[in-house]
Design brief:
The complex is a heterodimer. By secondary structure, chain A is of the alpha+beta class. Chain A contains 3 helices and 4 strands; from the N terminus they run ββααββα. In chain A, strands 3-2-1-4 form a 4-stranded mixed sheet, covered by helices on one side. Chain B is built from 7 helices and no strands. Classes of the chains: A alpha+beta, B mainly alpha.
Chain lengths: 96, 284
């Protein structure tokens, strides 16, 4: 599976790692819903760390889309929310 | 739905908007390539902008540091003149500047990190654009094969994803610069309004007060010296003229005669210079 850490690059991760990422993904989602900054920061740091330690960085010359995108390590909760909201606008636009 | 999957589709969708309108995938490849080149230029410009902002912050930090040092000196000389009130005032201002300086340093560090990241991004983008250029021609040549279409789609969405990632990184850097420029502007205003000490010292109340104090101290000291000279000279003169006008010292006689008219003003004109030095040495 290909994962992109925004502002960092793309990584190839194996299945066990992908499972770990799933769990952290769920935590990140909960933190976003509750606007829990501390939990958000913890989940994000966990995601970045997992990918850095278990993933294999792709060469810049490899051109392929990613399955998952992890926010930039320095992102704030508000920034990620805004990013996700920009998607809703896009979906509405496409429907209309 | 998973946050990371949603995020991934957001990132891919961002740059696809422009590319979606093109019907022929081969045109998409060309358009995508053009967009990449455009973006590469923008990122290069972004790097230059961040560097400019960083230099400005560095300049301000230098200015603030100089102000802080000056206030420290002022506090010291105020204390030497027994003006604790002035020393306190100077140190209070210095503390305010130190806070500003601390914040500037934090921002500066962030800016440097941002700059490094953008430089890296530029290099990565450069490599990717280069790779895409080669792939694009191969894909176009084999376009007729159904498989190639999928590949084109994949290459284009891959590259558009990198592009929008780069675009977002740029946006974040620019936001940060805007914040810092706002702060830099505020510090400039503070410096201009004299709330932080002006380096020229002309409109510096603490320095003015200190100057006044040291001037009046100097005047006092000169007065004391003059008094001392007069006290030393007049008894000798009075005695000299009254008792032995010519026998003892004809030279001294001339001096005594001349003293009120010639030597005294000359003396007064000379005293400030050596006196200032003595004064300062005594106090510091």
């Amino acid at each position: 599976m290909i994962v992109r850490i925004l502002e960092d690059g793309q990584y190839k991760v194996d299945k066990p790692t992908a499972k770990k990422l799933d769990a952290l993904d769920a935590k990140l989602g909960k933190a976003l819903d509750k606007a829990d900054e501390a939990a958000f920061a913890k989940a994000l740091a966990g995601l970045v760390k997992t990918v850095h330690s278990s993933g294999k960085k792709l060469e810049p010359s490899v051109i392929t889309p990613s399955d998952l995108a992890i926010p930039a390590a320095t992102s704030t909760l508000a920034e990620v929310r805004e990013l996700l909201n920009s998607e809703t606008i896009k979906v509405k636009r496409k429907k209309g | 739905m998973s946050v990371l999957k949603r995020l991934s589709s957001v990132v891919q969708a961002k740059a696809n908007k422009a590319l979606d309108r093109v019907e022929d995938p081969r045109d998409t490849l060309d358009l995508s390539y053009e967009k990449q080149l455009e973006q590469l230029q923008q990122v290069r410009k972004g790097v230059a902008d961040v560097a400019t902002a960083r230099k400005r912050i560095e300049l301000q930090a230098e200015q603030l540091q100089a102000s802080a040092n000056k206030l420290q000196d002022q506090a010291r000389s105020a204390l030497a003149q027994n003006r604790e009130d002035l020393a306190r005032e100077a140190l209070t201002r210095r503390a305010a500047i130190a806070t500003q300086l601390e914040q500037l340093k934090t921002q500066h560090d962030q800016l440097v990190a941002q700059e490094d990241k953008l430089v890296q991004t530029t290099q990565q983008l450069q490599a990717r654009v280069e790779a895409f250029r080669t792939q694009k021609e191969t894909l176009k040549a084999s376009y007729t094969a159904a498989q190639a279409q999928t590949k084109i789609g994949e290459a284009v969405s891959g590259i558009s994803e990198s592009m929008s990632d780069t675009g977002m990184a740029m946006q974040r850097a620019q936001d940060k610069i805007a914040q810092m420029q706002a702060r830099a502007g505020a510090v400039d205003e503070l410096l201009a309004s004299g709330a932080l000490t002006d380096l020229t010292g002309s409109s510096d109340p603490i320095q003015a007060e200190l100057d006044k104090a040291s001037q009046s101290g100097q005047v006092d000291a000169e007065l004391a010296q003059l008094k001392g000279q007069l006290a030393a000279a007049s008894p000798a003169g009075v005695l000299g003229t009254a008792e032995k006008p010519e026998a003892e010292a004809p030279e001294e006689d001339k001096v005594v005669d001349a003293e009120p008219v010639v030597e005294s003003p000359e003396d007064a004109a000379k005293t400030p210079d050596p006196f200032t030095i003595e004064d300062k040495e005594g106090e510091s």
